[in-house]
UniProtKB/TrEMBL annotation:
Assigned protein family: Belongs to the creatininase superfamily.
SUPFAM superfamilies reported for this sequence: Creatininase
UniProt keywords, alphabetically: Hydrolase, Metal-binding, Zinc
Co-factor requirement: Zn(2+)
Listed InterPro entries: Creatininase-like_sf (IPR024087), Creatininase/forma_Hydrolase (IPR003785)
Any Pfam family hit: Creatininase
Record-given protein name: Creatininase family protein
Transmembrane segments: none
Length: 261
């Protein structure tokens, strides 16, 4: 059992990887994260959690860590300078090309570790596309689920800490405190949305949104003011542990029942 870094392998090394090796692709984003966090926030989290999970899982399965994707689907932040994004069509094509290229070798399993909520729906589509087109076993892991996709955020955010809020800021205070400007952190929670019973983050009716819809002027949706590096370490450690456990299952997963001897 081992962890390899795909970029450090030779072509003959790649040819000798086993079919059960899981190719792990960190998927982040480059986008505005309010005035207090770097535009690479999601990419930093994706890379850190993917690397930690791969290292932990390699004690019991084979993982090859692919170079991460930084530019992804961030059109909800396209209004802001600093957001570098791909269209849904372009990103799907990129993912298909990566899968097609990988399938030319022996590896038959690819897992995305996603740290940007705006990618989730598209990555779920890519799972099926890569399965049907290239015969790959495909998996989608999350560094953490945002509140609008079944995850949680602190009660002080009313379940609406979806971008640059308490938990995400805490994670960056742990991973890259030199890039966080807490003096610029401000509460930016669209509390008026609590007046809707059915429509909202994590409610029965989803809605399309961009981060300037909420008219806060900050580009963030949440409350980063109480963030701490201690909480960030706990959140990242938990994400790494979950990711490692999931990767161990990805390495042995088979949707059909295994025949009994």
């Amino acid at each position: 059992m081992a962890l390899t870094r795909f970029t450090e392998l030779t072509a003959p090394d790649v040819a000798e990887l086993s079919a059960d090796t899981v190719a792990l692709l960190p998927v982040g984003a480059i986008e505005q994260h309010g005035p207090h966090l770097p535009v690479a926030t999601d990419y930093i989290v994706a890379e850190a959690v993917a690397e930690g999970a791969a290292l932990a899982a390699a004690d019991s399965c084979d993982i090859t860590l692919l170079p991460g994707l930084a530019y992804t689907k961030s059109d909800e932040h396209a209004w802001s300078p600093g957001t570098l994004w791909l269209s849904a069509r372009t990103l799907l094509a990129v993912l298909d090309d990566i899968g097609r290229s990988l399938a030319a070798g022996p590896v038959r399993r690819i897992a995305f570790l996603n740290a940007h909520g705006g990618n989730s729906a598209l990555l779920a589509v890519a799972l099926r596309e890569l399965r049907t087109r290239h015969g790959l076993a495909t998996f989608l892991l999350h560094a953490s689920l945002p509140a609008d996709q079944g995850g949680t955020s602190p009660a002080t955010e009313h379940g609406m800490g979806v971008h640059g809020g308490h938990n995400e800021t805490s994670a960056l205070l742990h991973l890259r405190p030199d890039l966080v400007h807490m003096d610029l952190a401000r509460r930016s929670v669209p509390e008026h949305l609590t007046g809707y019973e059915y429509i909202g983050f994590g409610k029965p009716v989803a809605f399309g949104w961009t981060s300037d819809d909420f008219a806060t002027g900050t580009g963030l949706v949440g409350d980063p003011t109480g963030a701490t590096p201690e909480l960030g370490r706990k959140l990242v450690d938990a994400a790494v542990a979950r990711g490692a456990a999931a990767l161990r299952e990805c390495a042995r997963f088979c949707p059909a029942p295994r025949p009994t001897p």
